[in-house]
C-alpha cells in the first residue's frame, strides 16, 4: 500500500474556523491512525483575500489544538515549498505542457496580449470516483465548461494548483469539506490529462446549527473561531474531543475520549453521511468534564489571568486554590470564574422559608451552637473546618443530611452547593461567624 500522506490546505484568509479545524483534525487522525504524514500547505493564490498574519494564526491554533504536523512552510520537508505562491514556476511548466499537448488553450483578453489558459474539457466523459464518505459519485463532462487553469496574471486557479501540489507532494488521501465535491471532477480532468493517479477523496458533511441550517460565519449564536474558544477558557483537549465527534462517531456510546484513544479508534468507515450538528451544550458539557479532570493547581493557574483581567485581587495562592476548588464542578469554561466569584461574594446571606423550615424541623439549634464553638476555636483552614463539622456531629449525635445540610443552610442559606469546608474557608471567619450567630439567634427567638 502507498504510504498515507494527507494534508490540510488552508487559505491564509482569516482565523482558524471550526469547519477548517475539523478538516485539519480528520486529516490528522487519518495520518496518525495509519502511521502516515500530515502536511500543512498554504493555498495563498487568492492574493486579494490573504490577510497579514493569517498563516501564522492558522498554524498557531492548529498547534494549540494539538495537531502536530510533519511538513509545513515553517517546518520545511522534502516536498516543499509549501506555499503556493512559491511554486508558480511549477504550475506554469505544467500549464504549458497542457498547451503543447493541445489539452488547453490561450484565452486572450480583448485588445491585449494578456491571456488566461483554459482547460479544454473533453466531450462525453464521465468522471467518477469512490468517495470515502459518500460512496460512488459521478459527473458528466458536458456539464462543465472549459475552465481557467492559469489566470492572465500568471497565477493558477485553485482546481489546477491543488492537483499539481497533491500529485508532487504524493498525497494519498484528500479529506475536505463537502463544498469541494463539485470541484473534484475538474481535478480528475487534470489527473487524467497527465496520466497521474488521483488520490482517494473523502468529503465531509456540512456542519449545521441547532436550527439545522448550514453553519455560516455570520451566525452570531455560535462561536466559530478557535481563538475565541481559547479566549474564554475552553481547553484544547476538550475542543479536540468535540471536533472529532463532528461527523464521526466512535464505537460504543462513550464520548469523552482522549486524543490517543480517538487516534486508535479512528475509522474512516464511521465518517457520517448526515450533516454534523454543532451542539453548543454538548461542547460546554465536554469542556466541563475536562475542567473537572484538572488538578487544583492547574485550574488555579489557568484561572488566574481571567481573575486578574477582571480586576479581582488574588489574595494568595491558597485563596486562589480554594476559589477554584469551590467552583471546579460548576465551570463550563474557565472564563466563568469571574462571574462565579462575583455571585459568590456579593450574594447577601438570606434564609429562605424552605431552608429555615429544614433547620427548624431538624432541631438544629444545639448542632449550630456546637459548630459555632468549634469554628470559633479553629484557624479556619479547610482541614480545621472539616474537623469542626465532624466534632459537632459527634457532640450532638447528628449525621447525614441533618448534619451537612443543616450546617450549610445556617452558613450559606442554601440547601445545596459546592464543597462546604472550602466555601466557608473562602468566605472567611468573620462573615461565617456573623451568619451563624444570626441563624442561631433566629432559632432561639422561636424556641
Ligand atoms: N484551500 C482550500 C480550502 O480552504 C483547500 C481545499 C482542499 O482541501 O482541496 O477550502
Walk me through what this model shows:
The protein has 447 residues and is mainly alpha-helical. Among the domains are: 1-71 and 205-293, Rossmann fold (3-Layer(aba) Sandwich), CATH 3.40.50; 296-346, Glutamate-tRNA synthetase, class I, anticodon-binding domain 1 (Helicase, Ruva Protein, domain 3), CATH 1.10.8; 353-445, Arc Repressor Mutant, subunit A. Helix content is 47%, strand content 11%. It is built from 18 helices and eleven strands. The chain has helices at residues 18-33, 54-64, 88-100, 158-168, 184-194, 226-231, 236-244, 259-265, 280-292, 296-309, 317-327, 337-346, 353-361, 365-377, 382-396, 400-412, 420-427, 429-446; strands at residues 5-8, 37-40, 104-108, 115-119, 126-131, 135-140, 147-150, 173-177, 200-204, 207-208, 276-277. The protein has a three-stranded antiparallel β-sheet. Strands 1-2 form a two-stranded parallel ribbon. The chain has a two-stranded antiparallel ribbon with strand order 5-6. Helix 1 links the parallel strand 1 and strand 2 (37-40). Helix 14 (365-377) runs antiparallel to helix 18. The N and C termini lie far apart (85 Å). The structure holds glutamic acid. Glutamic acid binds at residues 9-11, 43, 162, 176, 180.
Question: What share of the residues lie within helices?
Answer: 40-55%
Please count the beta strands (DSSP E, at least 2 residues each). Answer: 11
C-alpha end-to-end distance: 85 Å
Q: How would you name the CATH homologous superfamily of the domain at 1-71 and 205-293?
A: HUPs
* Overall radius of gyration: 31 Å
Structure classification: mainly alpha
Second rung of CATH, namely the architecture of the domain at 1-71 and 205-293: 3-Layer(aba) Sandwich
Counting DSSP H or I runs of 4 or more residues, the number of helices is 18
What series of H and E elements makes up the topology? EHEHHEEEEEHEHEEHHHEHHHHHHHHHH
Bound molecules: glutamic acid
Amino acid at each position: 500500500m502507498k504510504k498515507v500522506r494527507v494534508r490540510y490546505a488552508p487559505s491564509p484568509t482569516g482565523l482558524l474556523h471550526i469547519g477548517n479545524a475539523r478538516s485539519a483534525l480528520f486529516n490528522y487522525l487519518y495520518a496518525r491512525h495509519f502511521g502516515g504524514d500530515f502536511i500543512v500547505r498554504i493555498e495563498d493564490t487568492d492574493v486579494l483575500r490573504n490577510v497579514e498574519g493569517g498563516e501564522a494564526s492558522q498554524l498557531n491554533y492548529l498547534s494549540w489544538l494539538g495537531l502536530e504536523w510533519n511538513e509545513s512552510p515553517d517546518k520545511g520537508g522534502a516536498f516543499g515549498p509549501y506555499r503556493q505562491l512559491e511554486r508558480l514556476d511549477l504550475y506554469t511548466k505544467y500549464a504549458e505542457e497542457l498547451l503543447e499537448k493541445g489539452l488547453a488553450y490561450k484565452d486572450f483578453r480583448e485588445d491585449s496580449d494578456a491571456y488566461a489558459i483554459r482547460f479544454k474539457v473533453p466531450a462525453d466523459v464521465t468522471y467518477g470516483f469512490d468517495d470515502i464518505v459518500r460512496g460512488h459519485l459521478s459527473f458528466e463532462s458536458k456539464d462543465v465548461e472549459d475552465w481557467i487553469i492559469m489566470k492572465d496574471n500568471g497565477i493558477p486557479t485553485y482546481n489546477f494548483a491543488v492537483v499539481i501540489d497533491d500529485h508532487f507532494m504524493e498525497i494519498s488521501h484528500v479529506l475536505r469539506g463537502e463544498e469541494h465535491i463539485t470541484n473534484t471532477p475538474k481535478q480528475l480532468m487534470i489527473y487524467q490529462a497527465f496520466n497521474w493517479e488521483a488520490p482517494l477523496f473523502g468529503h465531509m458533511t456540512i456542519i449545521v446549527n441547532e436550527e439545522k441550517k448550514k453553519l455560516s460565519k455570520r451566525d452570531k449564536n455560535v462561536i466559530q473561531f478557535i481563538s475565541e474558544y481559547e479566549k474564554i477558557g475552553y481547553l484544547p483537549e476538550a475542543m479536540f474531543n468535540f471536533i472529532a465527534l463532528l461527523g464521526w462517531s466512535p464505537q460504543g456510546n462513550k464520548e469523552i475520549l482522549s486524543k490517543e484513544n480517538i487516534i486508535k479508534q479512528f475509522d474512516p468507515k464511521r465518517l457520517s453521511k448526515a450533516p454534523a450538528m454543532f451542539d453548543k451544550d454538548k461542547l460546554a458539557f465536554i469542556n466541563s468534564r475536562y475542567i473537572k479532570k484538572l488538578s487544583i493547581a492547574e485550574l488555579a493557574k489557568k484561572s488566574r489571568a481571567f481573575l486578574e483581567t477582571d480586576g479581582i485581587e488574588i489574595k494568595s495562592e491558597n485563596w486562589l486554590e480554594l476559589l477554584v476548588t469551590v467552583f471546579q464542578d460548576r465551570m463550563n469554561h474557565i472564563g466563568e470564574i469571574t462571574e462565579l466569584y462575583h455571585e459568590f461574594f456579593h450574594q447577601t446571606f438570606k434564609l429562605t422559608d424552605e431552608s429555615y423550615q429544614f433547620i427548624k424541623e431538624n432541631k438544629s439549634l444545639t448542632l449550630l451552637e456546637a459548630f459555632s464553638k468549634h469554628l470559633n476555636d479553629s484557624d479556619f483552614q479547610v482541614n480545621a473546618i472539616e474537623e469542626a463539622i465532624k466534632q459537632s456531629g459527634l457532640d450532638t449525635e447528628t449525621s447525614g443530611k441533618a448534619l451537612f445540610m443543616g450546617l450549610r443552610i445556617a452558613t450559606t442559606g442554601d440547601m445545596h452547593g459546592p464543597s462546604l469546608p472550602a466555601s466557608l474557608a473562602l468566605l472567611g471567619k468573620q462573615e461565617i461567624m456573623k451568619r451563624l450567630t444570626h441563624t442561631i439567634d433566629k432559632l432561639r427567638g422561636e424556641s
